[in-house]
Amino acid sequence: MLSRTQIKDIVFSIPFLKKYYIKRRINTTNDLIPLDRLDEELNKAEVVLLENSIDKNIKVGLVKDGDDYEGYVKERSYFPKYERFLKNNNIQYEYYDIYKSDWQEKAKEFDCIVWHTYSDPSTQDIATNKIYVLDKLMGKKCLPSFDEVWTYEDKINAHYLYKHFGFQEIPTFVSHSKKDAIDYVNKCKFPIISKLTTGSSSYGVDKLSNKEEALKLINEAFSFKGRKTYFPYQRQKNYVYFQEFVDDATFDLRIMVVSDKLFGYYRYPNKGDFRASGAGNIEKKEIPFDALEIAYKVKEAFGTTFLATDLLYSKKLNQYFIIESSIFIGVDTCEQLVVDGVAGYYERIAEGKYEFRKGKVWVQELALKEFLRK
């Protein structure tokens, strides 16, 4: 089954279908903003300013994310928020087309590269390889850095870090050995969850009810062709990623961390499903401090500028488990935390201690501020 993004890519390759798609999207999804109303939308948030002590005499290469919607910009595009911050702080910038053949020559003009990379495997390959050259070889400051993009949309790499730092993730089994995988399913308790290493909004996430289903998946993944995925150009090849099924979890909790500021909300699955991500059922209310502390410590261990960590809570075990983390997420509004009807964020005062501050801010601007402060 093709994802919404893949269907859109096909439609955008045909001009008259693209025009029809944009018109229909404007009338239905309401997630495209006319360029003449973009400033109005962005200015719903407070202005984020750098301290005077920070050197602003730099030039930023800003990569546009999002497709060309011909007079509209997608609500979730990051670059307009980055651009607003750069303008408000009088920082010189220029759009940078990192996909063109002259990307290395053009990069010499910039001190910093800022790029919200797509989450699909193709873009992640491009981003990882090019950011390695920019970051490690050319000495350019990149958001994200090579170390940050290494874990983005790669659940296996993130699992390695959770294990290294001793974080309590959902019990997870990752293997590149077919025999090892078979041994695991011969003794594990079903159901289990299988995931692709790359996938968002619950795409590529399946519940395996018994050993027969698990063995079928293993045989496909370790076959000559590999196992078909929802990405037409990529197959699951020579790996499995299994997680135990937490049967008493009724929600997941997404917590975003940038500097000492934390945001978040609850997500609930649709009736009859176990997957909350992508379901669109969101509730914004106060978040327990122990959950905030887990997310903060994961972000500090990963060494990222910004990190969103998703947690599950098991009532019978009285414990939060990490599902996954990401350096980029979908951001619809400048209200990523609301407590008692008031938008704001939690500020970390000391270990395990947080205070709520009111205010509407774009988390992208806070992330860019933190990046430039570093």
Features of this protein?
25% strand; 32% helix; 4-stranded parallel sheet; 8-stranded antiparallel sheet
Layout of SSEs?
Layout lengths: L3 H9 L2 H14 L3 E3 L3 H5 L16 E5 L8 E3 L4 H10 L3 E4 L7 H5 L4 E4 L5 H17 L3 E3 L2 H4 L5 H11 L6 E4 L2 H10 L4 E4 L9 E4 L2 H11 L5 E2 L6 E2 L3 E5 L7 E7 L2 E8 L12 E3 L5 H14 L3 E9 L4 E8 L11 E2 L2 E9 L2 E6 L4 H11 L1
Parallel strand pairs: 2-4, 2-5, 5-6
Antiparallel strand pairs: 1-3, 7-12, 8-9, 8-12, 10-11, 13-14, 13-16, 14-15, 14-19, 16-17, 18-19, 19-20
Helix pairs in contact: 4-12, 9-10
Protein model, in words:
- The chain is of the alpha+beta class.
- 32% of the residues lie in helices and 25% in strands.
- It has twelve helices and 20 strands.
- The strands form five sheets. Strands 13, 14, 15, 16, 17, 18, 19 and 20 form an eight-stranded antiparallel beta sheet that branches.
- The model has no long low-confidence stretch (mean pLDDT 92).
> What is the general shape?
globular
Largest sheet: 8 strands, antiparallel
**Helix fraction?**
25-40%
User: What is the CA–CA distance across the termini?
Assistant: 43 Å
How large is the radius of gyration?
Answer: 21 Å
Return the structural class.
alpha+beta
Number of helices: 12
What's the mean pLDDT score? 92
Unreliable segments of 5+ consecutive residues: none
Number of DSSP E strands: 20
Strand content: 25-35%
